Amino acid sequence: MHTFKLNGQSVSVDVEDDMPLLWVLRDELGHTGTKFGCGVAACGACTVHIDGTAMRSCSIPVSFAGGKAVQTIEAKDDPVLKRLQAAWITHQVPQCGYCQSGMLMAASALLRDKPQPTDADIDAAMTNICRCGTYQRVRAAIHTAASATSAASAQEKQA
Predict the structure, then answer these.
(1) Are 126 and 137 in contact (CB under 8 A)?
(2) List of residues 6+ apart from 152 with CB closer than 8 A
(3) Mean pLDDT computed over 60-75
């Protein structure tokens, strides 16, 4: 039995220790927002946060998640993720959309680590593959979300 927090809720699954976390999320727990892309942790479509760190769930056994906090794209109360999603729409980032949940999860981890990332920071952190090639839009959306996050933080400090 493997127990961890998924988007803030405790979950338990009775699966083999080496079952990839991606398949536990999708097949056992019904969280299909996390996508299968390559199965070898190269493309990033399966990116989730484990204890706040962006990780590729296709190559992580469920046993690694035991006792940890796992966040997927389905997280409802994540203000950084919400600002990123709004910026994604503003900049019309998605085309086919398949890589987007992984991109958004990688970008939200970046903004938590570096609230005002440079282009070089974004290029270093965003190693996800987008077949449609919307990398310039991704960069612009991350900058927009970073500005919105800074503005929201300033307003919270004044309140």
Answers:
(1) no
(2) 79, 83
(3) 97
